[in-house]
Structures are given as structure tokens and as C-alpha cells.
Amino acid sequence: MASEDVVGKSRGDTAVTTIVNLAEEAKLAREGVKGPGHQVLTICKSLVAGGVAGGVSRTAVAPLERLKILLQVQNPHSIKYNGTIQGLKYIWRTEGLRGLFKGNGTNCARIVPNSAVKFFSYEQASKGILWLYRRQTGDEDAQLSPVLRLGAGACAGIIAMSATYPMDMVRGRITVQTEKSPYQYRGMFHALGTVYREEGFRALYRGWLPSVIGVVPYVGLNFAVYESLKDWLLQTNPFGLANDNELHVVTRLGCGAVAGTIGQTVAYPLDVIRRRMQMVGWNHADSIVTGQGKEALQYNGMIDAFRKTVRYEGVGALYKGLVPNSVKVVPSIAIAFVTYEVVKDVLGVEMRISD
């Protein structure tokens, strides 16, 4: 009987606690202060918006993304892809429509959590950096400068890239393989398991260092240029582009395009080296990498990869695939930014990138 009283009392206390918590959150909402439950919901919505933005943008330019990787890693002794138009036609003729989107499923599986973590991390890093900056300067009205935005963007990029790098590594190999490859990866999880079993855990992070270094100019400049350009347009309102302190979708698309072009041009050589390092140790690679009997170059690290690439193929090899990447990155980055903010508007999230 005593135990029943204790249980009944416990349940009663739990019910009272729940009612009190709900009442407290309702009171906070009426006073304009958001409760913990609302904050969690806002964070989840922000992550969903970032994930949708990444998936939509990459799917839209999947054929150009695959061609870029093929141009980056193709053996100079066996040239199959020679330019953007010729390369796309060759893929269509030899592999059909599915060939144009090969690796896109794995790319979306990687880019959705990557984009979600990247956008969310940027907002959190921005808040933290701004708080520290205001505390050091004593200016409570201080705002993020382009340099501080660059730091927040770089932090977000490194966190997101490191969290999903093994998926990017196997995505590169799946993208490169064709129907004539001696060994087929059947999907992302099969590729992850095969690489781990045959080459070890470290192979999953092959090319990670140039990726980290490339994150600073690429992701950092993307965010910094986009946000700074958007703020400048809102403050100066040239040609009447701002309406009610808001920019039109087309204008934001242009901001994203400029940001993406600058970021990818600065960091592109590091992306080429990363892709080439990811192919090292792949014993069943297609002839696109091996060069039809020619021995593929082996790299002992990032510096060695840079040195051998320039020595045997010239400085221009560091920019192989730049044309399709330039065509791809402008709509890709622009669509990602605009989709992110539009989805957040639809979901009713108060927190925006520019906040």
C-alpha cells in the first residue's frame, strides 16, 4: 500500500512538473522569450533547411560534377574526356543518362548532412565569435566583420567536411568507375566496407589535409563574400535592389554566384590534389585512372602530389576540370544559399544566415 502511495505520488509529481513546465514555456512565449523546446525545434528546422539546400543544389548540377572529377583524375596517357561539351557527349554516348548522374546518390547522401552541419555550424560559430568580439571590445552593438565571417565560415567547413569525409572519398571512386571497371562498388556502404577491408581505416581519409587547407579560402570566402555583399546591397540599395530591407531572390542568387566563383577559383588546385590522392591504392581502378596499362602515379602526401603533378603534367594540370566546375559552382552555390533561406521562411524559422 505504501509503495502504491509512493508510485501515485511520483506520478502526481511528474504530472505537476509537466504542467508547470508547459505553463512556464507559455509564459516565456507570451513575454517574447523562447523556451528550450522551441529552441530545439528551431535548430532542427535549420538543419533541415541546410540539408535540403545541399541536396537540391548538387542534384541540379550532377552531370557537371561527375565530368569535373573525371577530368581531375584521368591519366594523361589515356585521354578520354577533352573538354566540357565533348566530355558530356562522351558520357552520354558510352553510359547513357544514368552515366551522367553516376555517384549522385552517394553525393546527396553525403552533401545533405554535410550542408546541414555546415550551415548550422556557421550560425553557431558566428554567434560565438560575435559574443567573444563584443566581450573583448566592450561594444555590445558590434557586428561581424568580413574577417570574422571568414573565420566562422572556415570553422563550419572544417567541421562539416571532417564529419563526412569518408563518404566523399568513396563517392569520388564511385563517380570515376564505369561499366568496364574490373571491380564494381555496388553503393556507398559497400564501397566504405571494401576500402576499409582492403586498404585500412586511414585510406578513408586519404586527401583529407588538402581538403582542410582548401576549406579556408573556399567555404570561408563563400560565406564571407555572400554575407558582406548582401549587407552592402541592403545598406546602399543601389538601383533599388532592396525592398523593405529584403533582397529579391534573383539578387541573392547573384550574390551566391559571385561568392561561389571567388571561392572555387582560389581553392581549386587543392581540390585536384585531393581527388588524385583519393585514387591512390585503388587496385581495381578503371582505365581512366590507370591509363590502359600505363602505371598510375603514386603519391606519398600532399606536397609529393603537387610536385609530381606539376613535374609530369605542368601547372595547368592543377586546374583540370575548372571549366565545368565554374559552370557548375555558380548555380550550385547560388541555389544552395537561396534554397536555404527560402526553406527556412517556409518552416517559420526566425534565425537567418545574416542574423
Keyword list:
single chain; 355 residues; mainly alpha; 12 helices; 2 strands; 74% helix; globular
SSE topology sketch:
Layout lengths: L1 H29 L5 H25 L1 H12 L10 H17 L3 H34 L8 H31 L11 H12 L8 H29 L5 E2 L2 E2 L1 H31 L7 H4 L11 H12 L8 H26 L8
Antiparallel strand pairs: 1-2
Helix pairs in contact: 2-5, 2-12, 3-4, 3-12, 5-6, 6-7, 6-8, 8-9, 9-11, 9-12
What does the model show?
This protein is an all-alpha fold and 355 residues long. Helix content is 74%, strand content 1%. It contains 12 helices and 2 strands. It has helices spanning 2-30, 36-60, 62-73, 84-100, 104-137, 146-176, 188-199, 208-236, 249-279, 287-290, 302-313, 322-347; strands spanning 242-243, 246-247. A two-stranded antiparallel ribbon has the order 1-2. The longest helix is centred in the middle third of the chain and has 34 residues, at 104-137. The chain is globular, with a radius of gyration of 24 Å.
Short summary of the structure?
The chain has helices at residues 2-30, 36-60, 62-73, 84-100, 104-137, 146-176, 188-199, 208-236, 249-279, 287-290, 302-313, 322-347, and strands spanning 242-243, 246-247.
Enumerate the spans where pLDDT stays under 50 for 5 or more consecutive residues.
22-32
Main β-sheet, in a few words? 2 strands, antiparallel
Major beta sheet, strand line-up: 1-2
Label the overall shape.
globular
Tally of helical runs: 12
> What is the average per-residue confidence, as pLDDT, rounded to a whole number?
80
Oligomer: single chain
Kindly name the structural category. Answer: mainly alpha
Rg, nearest Å: 24 Å
List the secondary-structure elements in sequence, H or E: HHHHHHHHEEHHHH
Tell me roughly what share of residues is in helical segments.
Answer: over 70%
Q: Classify the beta-strand content into a percent band.
A: under 5%
How far is the N terminus from the C terminus? 58 Å
By DSSP, the count of extended strands is: 2
